[in-house]
Design goal:
446 residues, alpha/beta, Rossmann fold, 2 domains, 6-stranded parallel beta sheet, two-stranded antiparallel sheet, 17 helices, 11% strand, elongated
Length: 446
């Protein structure tokens, strides 16, 4: 009840005696007199108790499940059990973003970690996107050359045989911010329709491509060719390459990156002290995939007086938006447990999609370009996109020769070597979760 607006509470079936939402005590079936009933998936099961023999059966003309991609399949089946032969069912959601969190290996093995909406879109042609439907029709035509043209054609959106509608107008972000996700997940269909006063509000920031001002973070200006690619209007994405090492404390397997923490602090200071754009601490969100990095950043920023900045993991920001987003990717190399344990951003397209699309006007990524380049999906595409627009700072990694002229990049590399004594980080910090919990006869300490 604490999350419900007081203006809506008077329309709710709230039982103050037991502090729960429930059916009306005096006449439970009176709830069916309303044209619209709003419920959670689980609570909708209470309506099945009203289906009593001898009385008018419970029926609905339409059942709409919002954020269906974030619900487990058994959850969605609860309200769908109330559907009749003539009931229209709508599952609204984005299966390309994070779904429900499942930790039970058996549930994951049986495929229940996937939402019903995602399963239908992957297995039933009538629920596929236009591009996927056309690809399927082409494959069928090749495999069955004698099939009729009607059978091998893909239905268009709006056709009677089409059961999927994609929302293309994005009212949150600048077009550049949604460009890579649009290519990867949405058939290149996303269109910018946000408030121009908001989504263009950071284009004059000193650090961005196209800006004519130098910054306190880098003594070397962008090359003239890069500025020419960026254009005069600015480009609202910036990638800052850092060569720090990911590590974890002995009592926690969660990773953090000290060098990236320092760079994030510098960027926050540059944003808040800018003379060309107006940014408040409430306008900034910092996202990382690792809990330990979140805690390190919170401690560091609070110590510097930036405690009002929202810092959290990717899952904390799903469905949210903010003017400026800074992403710390943490990992300095592909980790052995990265895929099986779903660690970090690498190899996790949905986590990548959520993080990249939270910003309205500016996205800044701080990470190791060598590690991110290994992710041939989203991160490599994003790095190439940034390079095309001259939006790479610090270490450019595999995208070009090392930025020797960049003092920050050189200092990062020196700090990295000095902290580790040129020893292998795997000798200091275990790379396997099993090794972490085993008793090693010795461990190299510096």
């Amino acid at each position: 009840m604490a999350s419900m607006k007081p203006s809506l509470l008077r329309y709710s079936c709230w039982d103050a005696k037991v502090s729960l939402f429930s059916l009306p005590d005096d006449e439970p079936r009176s709830i069916l007199e309303h044209q619209v009933i709003v419920s959670t998936c689980a609570s909708s099961g209470l309506l099945s108790l009203l289906d009593i023999s001898g009385q008018i059966p419970v029926s609905f003309s339409h059942i709409l499940v919002d954020e269906a991609s974030q619900a487990l399949q058994p959850e969605v089946m609860v309200p769908l059990s109330l559907a009749g032969p003539d009931t229209g069912v709508v599952l609204a959601g984005d299966p390309k973003q994070l779904g429900a969190v499942t930790r039970n290996p058996l549930v994951q093995e049986l495929g229940l970690a996937r939402s019903l909406q995602e399963r239908l879109m992957e297995t039933c042609s009538i629920y596929r996107t236009q591009l996927a439907a056309e690809a399927t029709a082409t494959e069928w035509k090749v495999e069955h050359p004698k099939a009729s043209e009607h059978r091998t054609s893909a239905p268009k959106e709006g056709d009677p045989g089409r059961c999927l509608t994609m929302l293309r107008k994005n009212y949150r972000s600048h077009q550049a911010i949604i460009e890579v996700p649009s290519r990867m997940f949405y058939d290149r269909t996303l269109e910018q329709h946000g408030d121009k006063s908001v989504i263009d509000s950071m284009l004059a920031w000193e650090m961005l491509p196209g800006s004519s001002s130098a910054t306190i973070l880098d003594t070397a200006p962008l090359r003239s060719t890069a500025r020419a690619q960026a254009g005069p209007k600015g480009f609202p994405i910036l990638f800052w390459g850092c060569l720090g090492e990911h590590m974890h404390e002995l009592d926690s397997p969660s990773f953090f990156n000290v060098v990236e923490c320092g760079k994030v602090l510098d960027l926050v200071h540059a944003l808040l002290s800018s003379t060309r754009v107006q940014v408040r601490m409430q306008d900034i969100a910092i996202i990382s995939a690792f809990r330990k990095q979140v805690l390190k950043l919170r401690s560091l920023l609070r110590e510097k007086g930036y405690g009002a900045i929202n810092i959290g993991q990717v899952e904390d920001f799903q469905g949210q938006e903010t003017k400026v987003v800074i992403i710390s990717t943490v990992l300095s190399a592909r980790h052995p447990n990265e895929i099986s344990e779903q660690l970090g951003f690498l190899g996790h397209p949905k986590r990548f999609n959520v993080a990249i699309t939270r910003a309205q006007a500016l996205t800044v990524i701080v990470g190791n370009p060598y590690a991110l380049w290994e992710d041939v999906g989203g991160w490599r595409q994003l790095l190439e996109f940034c390079k095309e627009h001259g939006a790479l700072r610090g270490s450019s990694g595999p995208l070009g020769t090392p930025d020797v002229e960049s003092v920050e990049s050189l200092l990062d590399a020196i700090a990295n070597e000095s902290l580790l004594g040129k020893a292998s980080s795997n000798d200091i910090y275990p790379s396997s979760l099993e090794d972490y919990f085993s008793d090693s006869p010795w461990r190299l300490l510096l």
